[in-house]
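Extended Data, panel c. Modelled sequence:
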Amino acid sequence: MEDTTKTWGIRGISADVRQAVITQSQKQGMKAGEWLTVAILEKIKQDRNEGKALVATNGKPAVSAEDASAVLALLERLQGMGIEPPDRMKKKAITLVRKCMVLTKV
């Protein structure tokens, strides 16, 4: 078994963090340097992918905020001209807006 009392250092890394690295690396059967490399690369990968939402699709096109906005603008124009949109059209607009809201939460 390796001697866990060996010290290593990077300026600004406290002793408790060094010990945590040693402990975690031993749990995974790795040397501290190998474990740090994997952890750092995983963090870089995570940072690069931040904001890139994974969206499951069933073959239908994704709903965008622009689509929802265009439909709402159309309904507003119809009402502005004194034309009451059909209930079916209103329901479809609500569904579209809800889908858009769900997608933006991701």
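The CA atoms of residues 39 and 59 lie 36 Å apart. This feature is highlighted in the accompanying rendering.
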